[in-house]
Specification:
The protein is α+β, with helices and mostly antiparallel strands. The chain has two domains: 257 residues, no CATH class; 122 residues, Conserved hypothetical protein from pyrococcus furiosus pfu- 392566-001, domain 2 (2-Layer Sandwich). Helix 4 runs parallel beside helix 6. The longest helix has 17 residues.
């Protein structure tokens, strides 16, 4: 059963939120962060990308950079740009993209739930990325950025969220980069707080949607602190880490597409003939073609769009991994025909988030940088949950959740 608790959030006063808030640390590089934070001393990038306070080219993993994060975090509190709430609350964070709104509950999740598998993952994590985030959590003694969870649909929670969301939000702004609306409310009534805790306690699992490295780092630092404390009791704040939890049915997963530099020595005609062994190939002309169902792919090659439909028998509907379009395309196109064995390391392939549109695939190919582009139908939340429930791991570069959580709306201190 999933254990969550309310917490005393550290947040910007309303008048500062649009100066403090930022994109997550891992969706932009140091140069982009430096540019976005230019002229804004209150930007959270000074805490989550503190290399921007050093000369260009400074290694973001330099010990001085981590120390600067902690120094800036303290300064933000000293100057009143971040202020801790006086009581433990839950919070609501709503994001509106293209007219659709998803409502997340901001909670503290339980470290042991991550370690024992109640919080389920669907991606592998890299130790170097975990260690980077662990250093950041340690030096700040805080979860500066939340992770992104999904939970099974729950009408009781929906009703509580709807009641608060009918009131005036604490924050309400349009983010300058993504153009999406972000709103925030405080759940401070004791009865509602108790009900939320109880509803989560009845759930068999929570699911990491986005933020596998942050989840691992937060949980590992929590476990580390428990070991280091000779008087550890189990109720300390470091036993919990911050997450925004959304009902699974509200989440939007968009396509995560592929572009490849060459055809592995084949001509375009030979490549198309090789595809016909396992796919029904239909030429669609110069108009953009988007996949319209599972097992249907869009391909752009030499100025033309094609529909590729996997033939019956090339996949197993009873295999939670084998049925995925990312598996089908990896096995039957990228590996078998193009000779790309490892999506994580092969330099001949690159990945393009669907938020950039099919036009970006066309541009990359037309420029001559890439030879062929492949667009996939998005995975479903049910597929992700089925994979997590069976203890399987998704292939790399499978899911792209949008909109991304903005950072800086709330922070969780570990003591």
């Amino acid at each position: 059963m999933a254990i969550v608790k309310p917490f005393k959030g550290i947040r910007p006063p309303k008048e500062y939120v649009e100066q403090v808030e930022s994109r997550p640390y891992d969706v932009l590089n140091s140069e982009e962060a430096r540019k976005e934070a230019e002229g804004n001393e209150k930007s959270l990038y000074h805490i989550i990308k503190p290399e921007i306070d050093f000369p260009e080219g400074t290694d973001e993993h330099d010990p001085r950079v981590y120390a600067k994060a902690a120094e800036n975090f303290q300064m933000f509190q000293d100057k009143g740009w971040l202020v801790q709430d006086g009581k433990e609350n839950y919070y609501i964070y709503a994001q509106t993209m293209n007219g659709k709104t998803q409502y997340g509950l901001v909670v503290c999740a339980y470290v042991d739930d991550y370690l024992n598998g109640v919080i389920k993952k669907h991606e592998l994590t890299r130790r170097d990325k975990e260690e980077d985030r662990m250093k950041h959590v340690r030096v700040n003694n805080a979860n500066i950025e939340p992770v992104f969870f999904a939970y099974p649909d729950d009408k009781v929670l929906d009703d509580i969220v709807a009641r608060y969301a009918a009131e005036e939000p604490v924050y309400d702004f349009i983010a300058p980069i993504d153009g999406f609306r972000h709103r925030f409310w405080i759940i401070d009534k004791d009865d509602d707080i108790a009900t939320i805790t109880k509803e989560f306690a009845a759930m068999p699992a929570l699911y990491i949607a986005d933020g596998h490295h942050r989840s691992a780092a937060a949980a590992l630092v929590g476990a580390e602190k428990a070991k280091q404390n000779p008087n550890h009791k189990g109720d300390e704040e470091y036993n919990y880490f911050m997450a925004v939890c959304f009902p699974a049915n509200q989440l939007t997963i968009i396509d995560y597409n592929r572009v490849v530099k060459d055809l592995n020595g084949l001509t375009a005609e030979q490549f198309l003939n090789a595809l016909r062994e396992n796919f029904v190939v239909e030429e669609k002309g110069t108009e953009e073609y988007r996949p319209n169902k599972l097992h249907n792919f869009s391909m752009y090659l030499e100025g033309k769009w094609y529909s590729l439909t996997a033939k019956e028998g090339t996949y197993d509907d009873n295999d939670p991994i084998g049925v995925l379009d990312v598996t089908i395309s990896s096995n039957l196109i990228l590996d078998k025909i193009l000779g790309i064995k490892d999506l994580r390391s092969d330099k001949r392939i690159d990945f393009v988030g669907g938020i950039r549109g099919l036009g970006e695939l066309k541009r990359r190919v037309d420029s001559g940088e890439m030879k062929v582009a492949l667009a996939l139908y998005p995975v479903t939340m049910k597929q992700i949950m089925d994979i997590a429930d069976t203890g399987n791991i998704m292939p790399p570069k499978t899911t792209w959740f949008e909109p991304k959580l903005r950072s800086g709306l709330i922070i969780h201190k570990l003591s």
